Amino acid sequence: MAYGMDAAYATLEQMVEDQENDNLRRQEEARERQRRLDALARERQEIGRKQEQRRRELEAQLAASLAASQAQVQRLRQQQAQRLAQMQQRQQQQTASAEASKAAALASQAAAEESKALSMAAGQAVSSSLGILSNAGGKQGRTATVSKRQKRGSGGRRTTSALRIGQTGSASGSGSNLAI
Question: Do 140 and 170 meet the contact criterion of CB atoms below 8 Å apart?
Answer without folding.
Answer: yes
